[in-house]
Amino acid sequence: MRSNVSEKTLVDCMDRRSILYLAVGASVLTGCEEQDVKNEGEIRSDTMKRSPNGFTTRPSPVDIESNYPELAPLRRTAVRLHPRKKSDLPVDSSKIGGVFFANDPAEWPFCRTHKTHHIGILQLTKYDVPELGFPDGCDIFQLTFCPFDHDDVYCPDVSGRWLSLSDDHIQQSSNPSFEEPEYKYIPNECAIHPERVEDYPQMDELPEDLQARIGADRSLVGPVEEWLERPDDEWAPETAYSYFLSAADGTKVGGNVNWIQVPQSSRCPKCSGWTEDLLTIASWEWDGGTFHRWKPIEDCPQGVAVSSDGADDHGMMFGDAGAIYVGVCRKCEGFPIARTFQCS
């Protein structure tokens, strides 16, 4: 079923995280007309450098560093993980959900508050995502969480483990049985497809003078409108920057954080010092405002309507289309992690 509500109407009355919620219910993202599908097909031409791992982010419509050279030192490499459903993946592979590597099942994380074992959420190997920054002697990282809300931030409490694949291992189910788990905290098993992209800080993390200059720069709007082939006099430079030119959307390692609200750091559970940004687990890989840039071109082939397929393959939902932001402390032994949570 295709929504008959125009994208512009939705943008006028809903925040960007709410747009896709309505669209997913209709099984099709709103506002993707035939011309947009054609444009996506054109981008898949021989001139487009394709990601070797199967999913390619559409290039930026603006060379933002040419406009603002001071953004160059703020550029970061984000590894978009592009989770897609796939069953029976190897126990020692990079993935979301499924059966995880475990060299000592007795040490599998346990929540004392809810008296239950954690669920395996994300497993990454040094081979697939070296950008994670592994401790010496470790080559696999696991993110697990308790499948129930914790009162401090009303989202699952997380645990991180850095292990060695050379150790003898016993397969550990990452999805133990629960009588009443919280809604959508049990992940579908997904393969990941790492893709490196460059991104920039969100507006709130830029110096105030740079925020003001970007917010008044109408030259950013023209290329975006031409890129979308959907001119809209109400496009604001700040919106163009936030949706298409700044932090990469979705589940990713590194990069600049795509905060849903204001920037918010976490503290190390051991030393109480500030952590550094490690990764993001997002409810959606893109939404109704950002999909023009962040939906992979392979998911929108020529002649096929832009559906919501791929936006939420892992099946988890954190609050109202929220995200869990994981930080790491590399000063403390074992590289402990902490998390913050935001939603619309």
Regarding quaternary structure, how should these chains be classified? single chain
The secondary-structure element order is HHHHEEEEEEEEEEEEHHHEEHEE
Indicate the structural class: alpha+beta
Taking all Cα atoms into account, the compactness measure Rg is 20 Å
Main β sheet profile: 6 strands, antiparallel
Counting structural domains, the number is 1
Mean model confidence by pLDDT: 81
Helical content band: 10-25%
Going across the major beta sheet, what is the strand order?
12-1-13-14-15-16
Strand content: 15-25%
Q: Could you please describe the fold and organization of this structure?
A:
By secondary structure, this protein is α+β, with helices and mostly antiparallel strands. The protein has one domain. Helices cover 17% and strands 19% of the residues. It has helices spanning 7-13, 16-25, 34-43, 64-67, 208-215, 221-228, 237-245, 291-294; strands at residues 76-80, 84-85, 95-96, 99-100, 110-111, 116-117, 119-125, 140-145, 158-163, 172-173, 190-191, 195-199, 252-254, 276-282, 323-328, 337-342. A 6-stranded antiparallel beta sheet has the order 12-1-13-14-15-16, with no helix packed on it.
Brief synopsis:
The chain is an alpha+beta fold and 344 residues long. The protein contains 8 helices and 16 strands.
List the helices and strands and how they pair.
Elements: H1 7-13, H2 16-25, H3 34-43, H4 64-67, E1 76-80, E2 84-85, E3 95-96, E4 99-100, E5 110-111, E6 116-117, E7 119-125, E8 140-145, E9 158-163, E10 172-173, E11 190-191, E12 195-199, H5 208-215, H6 221-228, H7 237-245, E13 252-254, E14 276-282, H8 291-294, E15 323-328, E16 337-342
Antiparallel strand pairs: 1-12, 1-13, 2-11, 3-7, 3-11, 4-10, 5-6, 7-8, 8-9, 13-14, 14-15, 15-16
